[in-house]
Amino acid sequence: MKHGNVQSLREAIDEVLNTYQLKERINAVSLEQNWELLFGKTIARYTRKIFISDHKLFLTIESAPLREELMYSKTKMIAIINERIAENFITEIIIR
What we know:
By secondary structure, the protein is of the alpha+beta class.
């Protein structure tokens, strides 16, 4: 058996995920599934849509007061997401 180009299983999996651009989709699904855990029941209840494109998180919030409050918490939300899901996964949040 040839051992010239040895890499760990983790590296091999990461390479496949990056090659086929699956890592971002897996992170997006993880964020959607853990939204309530990350931000609580109230925010989850008023969140109508979560969409991720090009490291930007698009949120549709149906409560105007909550939407306004979240506008001031974007930096904190980005930090929470990137800490729990993946480093530098989200760089910007757009709230509608």
